[in-house]
Amino acid sequence: xxxxxxxxxxxxxxxxxxxxxxxxxxxxxxxxxxxxxxxxxxxxxxxxxxxxxxxxxxxxxxxxxxxxxxxxxxxxxxxxxxxxxxxxxxxxxxxxxxxxxxxxxxxxxxxxxxxxxxxxxxxxxxxxxxxxxxxxxxxxxxxxxxxxxxxxxxxxxxxxxxxxxxxxxxxxxxxxxxxxxxxxxxxxxxxxxxxxxxxxxxxxxxxxxxxxxxxxxxxxxxxxxxxxxxxxxxxxxxxxxxxxxxxxxxxxxxxxxxxxxxxxxxxxxxxxxxxxxxxxxxxxxxxxxxxxxxxxxxxx
Length: 300
Prior knowledge:
The protein is α/β, with parallel strands linked by helices. Helices cover about 25% and strands about 25% of the residues. The protein has helices at about 35-45, 60-65, 100-110, 125-140, 155, 220-235, 245-255, 275-290, and strands at about 5-10, 50-55, 75-80, 115-120, 125, 145-150, 165-170, 175-185, 190-195, 200-205, 210-215, 260-265, 270. The strands form two sheets. Strands 1, 2, 3, 4, 6, 7, 8, 9, 10, 11 and 12 form an eleven-stranded mixed sheet that branches. Strands 5-13 form a two-stranded antiparallel ribbon.
């Protein structure tokens, strides 16, 4: 298989979780979710991992996280900071919130030198998702297609409150025709998705495929993203607006810049949105260990 890079977004502060959830232990020997992500990527044949972090967390990541697997896969770091913007762009001094998932990739673009898979640091995607990506990018028939690995919404829902997901719409050949960033919540026994772009609401079924930021992208995608970020920064940067990766993908597909194939993972997805999600995730990981899907200690 040709070189494939895993890009892990780990710069968010987890405001709804109440702390830096990226480094919260979830495994029996203090493993964090990213340990399992890197482990799955290595056994699927990935050759490099890039962590997108805040600069202030670099020493912690180097000394407490990445040193465990630095001899097994190439590790690099990109810094998502509010001042990583085109020259002349004004960021409000009071702004604390990062500029969004699209900006995270903008900050790491200089380190990406080929096909890459993008994930969240606080999402557990499971072995099969990485296998799907590795097989996809090793297939010469895919040419320049991109990839989204999705899950039925109900699998990604939190028992504790609403969640943000990309709602995926596909054609009969499983190519994505729209990917809409939404907040999804329960109402009257069903689920409602509210677009984060225009605030429109619509009902969705519990088995509707949604993205949880597991994307397989080509290097030439980065140029399109840079152009879109430049357009985004021509408008006023407020205290809260964001540059969404899903919106870049949606626009690229609509304009015919690239095609994106949708596939569904057979693995269990797990994430931490709220403190209450943590114990459930730990229990599920222990169950996967008992089934033999992961060793009890990942990095022996």
